[in-house]
């Protein structure tokens, strides 16, 4: 199934016996390195304790509540602005900018549906999601004058190597520019259009983000560590072990191999 989905998405045969490209190595990691720790860190609720222990609670987006079912939520206790999300997948969230305008029937229907899904099998065997116990969490709504920008550090064996800067994630207007660790823009695109000079401004906390990313990624052959900057304060986004499910569209295509060369696969830990 994984090989078929990989071919349908990328147009390429998947070589799991001798993976060389970044995309191929991410597929190998899905099958052979989906550890319990990765499952914990993919869980948007449980990951908070691990992150707090590693770098401190100051970097966590304030938690407003956690529930096992949508019908347990007392919306009267939540502020006018907040973010409601499932802990066990990606993109399953509701951004609330005005609580009075929330369509509760639609929100209930969406979350009831999402809570029944297993994200591990939606985009290609992302097995570290498989055993997450679904929950709904509410977090403080973060906002910026220029729109929320994701700073996504690609880290190889504890070394942040690139930062993928994304804006308007989760919308058709998603843009992405990619930089090295000296904030030089790299001439490549992956999946989303290049943001160009729109995203060229280096965040004031960039050096601190790099240090935090190194700490958080030190135990993994590869992980993407995400941050936001709001009023010169860093907030942790998430840790992503299989970005784009390892099926990103690189332009120029040789960057798939260049990133693959940076990823040293560990010894096999999980056999599926």
Attribute tags:
272 residues; alpha+beta; D-amino Acid Aminotransferase, Chain A, domain 1; 2 domains; five-stranded antiparallel beta sheet; four-stranded antiparallel beta sheet; globular
How would you describe this structure to a colleague?
The structure is a single chain. This protein is an alpha+beta fold and about 270 residues long. It has 2 domains: about 150 residues, D-amino Acid Aminotransferase, Chain A, domain 1 (2-Layer Sandwich), CATH 3.30.470; about 80 residues, no CATH class. Helix content is about 25%, strand content about 25%. The strands form 3 sheets. The chain has a 5-stranded antiparallel β-sheet with strand order 7-6-5-9-10. The chain has a 4-stranded antiparallel β-sheet with strand order 1-4-2-3, with helices on one face. A hairpin with a 2-residue loop joins strand 5 and strand 6. The longest helix has 12 residues. The chain starts with a helix and ends in a 10-residue tail after the last helix. The model has no long low-confidence stretch (mean pLDDT about 95).
Uncertain segments are none
The total number of structural domains is 2
CATH class of the largest domain: Alpha Beta
Give the oligomer, counting copies of the same chain as homo and different chains as hetero.
Answer: single chain
Gyration radius (Cα, Å) is: 18 Å
The main sheet orders its strands as 7-6-5-9-10
Just name the CATH architecture of the largest domain.
2-Layer Sandwich
The proportion of residues forming helix, as a percent range, comes to 25-40%
Distance between the termini: 13 Å
Number of strands: 11
Mean pLDDT, as a whole number? 95
Q: In the CATH scheme, what's the topology name of the largest domain?
A: D-amino Acid Aminotransferase, Chain A, domain 1
Judged by helices, strands and strand pairing, the structural class is alpha+beta
- Which percent band covers the strand fraction? 15-25%
By DSSP (H or I, 4+ residues per run), the number of helices equals 7
Task: Let me know the largest β-sheet.
Answer: 5 strands, antiparallel
Q: How do the SSEs run, as a string of H and E?
A: HHHHEEEHEEEEEHEEEH
Shape: globular
């Amino acid at each position: 199934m994984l090989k078929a989905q990989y071919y349908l998405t990328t147009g390429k045969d998947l070589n799991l016996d001798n993976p060389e490209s970044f995309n191929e190595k991410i597929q190998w990691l899905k099958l052979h390195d989906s550890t319990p720790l990765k499952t914990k860190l993919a869980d948007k609720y449980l990951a908070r304790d691990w992150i707090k222990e590693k770098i401190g609670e100051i970097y966590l987006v304030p938690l407003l509540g956690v529930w096992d079912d949508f019908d347990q939520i007392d919306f009267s206790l939540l502020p006018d602005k907040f973010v409601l999300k499932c802990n066990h997948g990606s993109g399953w969230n509701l951004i609330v900018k005005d609580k009075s305008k929330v369509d509760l029937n639609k929100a209930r229907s969406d979350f009831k549906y999402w809570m029944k899904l297993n994200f591990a099998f939606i985009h290609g065997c992302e097995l570290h999601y498989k055993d997450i116990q679904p929950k709904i969490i509410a977090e403080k709504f973060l906002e910026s004058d220029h729109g929320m920008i994701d700073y996504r550090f690609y880290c190889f064996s504890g070394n942040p190597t690139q930062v993928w800067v994304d804006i308007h994630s989760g919308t058709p207007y998603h843009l992405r520019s990619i930089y090295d660790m000296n904030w030089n823009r790299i001439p490549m695109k992956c999946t989303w259009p290049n943001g160009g000079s729109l995203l060229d401004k280096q965040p004031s906390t960039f050096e601190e983000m790099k240090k935090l990313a190194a700490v958080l990624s030190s135990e993994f052959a590869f992980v993407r560590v995400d941050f936001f900057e709001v009023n010169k304060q860093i907030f942790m986004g998430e840790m992503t072990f299989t970005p784009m499910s390892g099926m990103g569209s690189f332009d120029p295509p040789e960057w798939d191999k260049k990133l693959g060369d940076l990823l040293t696969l560990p010894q096999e830990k999980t056999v599926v």
